[in-house]
Amino acid sequence: MTVGCSLLSVDLNKMKKLVFATHNVHKLEELRAIIKNFDIVGLTDINCHEEIVEDADTLDGNAKIKADFVTNNFHIDCFADDTGLEVDALDGAPGVYSARYAGEGCSYQDNVNKLLEALEGVENRRARFRTVIALNLNGEQHFFEGKVEGVITKEQHGEKGFGYDPIFLPDGFDQTFAEMSMEVKNEISHRGRATKKLIEFLIHNA
Ligand code: IMP
After folding, report:
1. How far apart are CA 48 and CA 93, in angstroms?
2. What span, in angstroms and rounded, lies between the C-alpha atoms of 48 and 76?
3. Which among 82, 88, 165, 171 is annotated as catalytic?
4. How many CB atoms are located within 10 Å of the residue 205 CB?
5. Does the beta carbon of 82 sit less than 6 angstroms from any atom of ligand 1?
6. How do residues 140-193 score in pLDDT, each as one tens digit?
7. Closest CA to 85 of 157, 169, 185
8. Ligand 1 centre distance from Cα of residue 37 (Å)
């Protein structure tokens, strides 16, 4: 049983609740592994079944749209994130359009195939994942950013993770994100780093 419905409401076993504005079970799972001292709740858990239209042309803009949608419609504090894979040789594409790079309704595999094709014969394979988190807390909005530099491999490696993980090799590692355990990926990933900043903020301000 939960007392109150704010971002940090306390339930009977004293675990604090945090609404993460996402339907993505992979992201929820990752965030739950990182934020151990909060009960992370997704959109489905608060009976929000709508697809929120993310039509901004920046990561900050999309994170804000999602966080504001939840706060305005459900009157609760929450946080939302948006991530893009920025490839130098493609002038930062797919960037904010990473989810639908291969077209509306495409699969993760379609996106991976399209990116590998776009980089065929290209020597400069430098890229980075960048995540922006927007937090709505007590009537104020705060932003946190995390990024990880690396290269796009020529072939896919690994079965874990999701999205572009099989073709992203982070600097300093000899495994793609899809070959790493979730714990190692979370330690160094864009979302892991942005989330650490969020947690740090919550510890001092919540
Ligand atoms: P979102 O904003 O977190 O939904 O991310 C947009 C898209 O970026 C996703 O649909 C994935 O294709 C890709 N993406 C985001 N995070 C990751 C990750 O950790 N690994 C691989 N791909 C990711």
Report:
1. 31
2. 12
3. 82
4. 11
5. yes
6. 999 999 999 999 999 999 999 999 999 999 999 999 999 999 999 999 999 999
7. 169
8. 24
Q: Give me ligand 1 centre to Cα 71, in Å.
A: 23
Domains of the chain, each with CATH number or no CATH: 2-205 (3.90.950.10)
pTM of the predicted protein model: 0.88
Residue with tokens 């920025």: 86
Rounded to 5 degrees, φ, ψ at 134 are: -110, 130
Our answer on whether the CB atom of 161 is closer than 6 Å to any ligand 1 atom is yes
Q: Above 70 in pLDDT, residue 56?
A: yes
N- to C-terminal Cα separation, the chain: 21
Catalytic residue status for 55 = no
| Structure tokens, 54 | 């993310």
Tell me how crowded residue 139 is: count the other CB atoms within 10 A of its CB: 7
Please name which of 15, 11, 9, 23 lies closest in space to residue 69, comparing C-alpha atoms: 23
Res 13: pLDDT: 52
Q: Which helix (H) or strand (E) holds 69?
A: helix 59-74
